[in-house]
Amino acid sequence: MIDKKNPKAIKKERRDKKLRVPVLPIEEAAIKNKAANAGLTVAEYLRNLGLGYQVHSIIDNRKMDALLKINGDLGRLGGLIKLWLTNDERAKYVGKSQLHLTLDSIRNTQSTMLDAIMKLKK
């Protein structure tokens, strides 16, 4: 019996049976592209789809890593503003112009993050 939750649980057997599926050139390109995006060979990709396994894209993981990095940047910028607002001794030389630069940086980072999220939604 095939374990749908864990395709790797299938005993490593030699796969010597082949299926032939006629496709159009544009379909071939699309399948190869989707397999590459998932980090799989075409055979692994089609086998997983055919057996009902969910195929995850590695590109989505890269985008999530980018969003996490941006989130970390926003946290650091927020920490700088908090330091400035609390009149900490270490921040007494930070002027309003520096605060405005920091706020502009946060806005730019938010815009970058929104772009990444919109791309991820597609």
Explain what the structure shows:
This protein has 122 residues and is mainly alpha-helical. The protein is 62% helix and 0% strand. The protein is elongated, with a radius of gyration of 24 Å. The model has no long low-confidence stretch (mean pLDDT 78). This is Conjugal transfer relaxosome component TraJ. InterPro entries: NikA-like.
Helicity range of the residues? 55-70%
Spell the H/E element sequence: HHHH
User: Cα-atom Rg, whole angstroms?
Assistant: 24 Å
The total of helices stands at: 4
How many structural domains are formed by the residues?
Answer: 2
Q: How would you classify the helix and strand content by structural class?
A: mainly alpha
Layout of strands and helices, then pairs:
Layout: H1 25-37, H2 42-50, H3 58-85, H4 96-121
Helix pairs in contact: 1-2, 3-4
Considering the chains and any ligands shown, give keywords for the structure.
122 residues; mainly alpha; Arc Repressor Mutant; 4 helices; Conjugal transfer relaxosome component TraJ; NikA-like
